[in-house]
Design brief:
single chain; alpha+beta; 2,3-Dihydroxybiphenyl 1,2-Dioxygenase, domain 1; 8-stranded mixed sheet; 8 strands; 40% strand; Glyoxalase_1_CS; metal-binding; Glyas_Fos-R_dOase_dom
Length: 149
């Protein structure tokens, strides 16, 4: 059986320096339980911060082991039903580490990808913060481009 692929963007490769997968984001329903689970696998909590989710505070923890980072985040109570109702897994996004978020954003925009945010978003994560933006892939998967400042 043959499938016809629909052209989504230009076939040329973008000139963006992607260093590696930066982290994998997982929404969790019990942050304490999830932290303990990943600690048992040898991960350590290297960053914890709150974020705003529709006017309510959520909590994000970055768990690191060697060069792997798992982002565990707990939404406020009002957002937990969405997480609990998922039946096909809980990986929310894959994040790519980029050297220059503005260059990456402009290149992605110029190439015609579907960008979710109108501009790179700053978060007070890590020591000096980070900036990120997301695109959606052909099956709706979310790919994040992230620069730790």
């Amino acid at each position: 059986m043959y499938y016809k692929l629909k052209a989504i963007t230009s076939l040329r490769s973008l000139d963006i320096k992607i260093n590696a997968i930066q982290h994998i984001g997982i929404p969790v329903t019990d942050l304490k339980r999830s932290k303990t689970f990943y600690e048992r696998l040898g991960f350590a909590n290297v960053m914890q911060a709150t974020f705003d989710e529709k006017g309510e505070p959520g909590t994000c923890v970055m768990m690191k082991r060697d060069n792997m980072i798992m982002e565990l985040y707990e939404l406020p109570e009002s957002g937990l039903n969405e997480i609990r109702s998922r039946s096909n897994g809980h990986i929310d996004h894959v994040a790519f580490d980029v050297e220059d978020i503005e260059v990456a954003y402009n290149s992605i925009k110029e190439a015609g990808f579907n960008i979710i945010e109108p501009e790179p978003v700053f978060l007070q994560f890590w020591e000096r913060g980070c900036k990120y933006f997301n695109i959606t892939g052909p099956d709706g998967e979310r790919l994040e481009f992230n620069q730790i400042l």
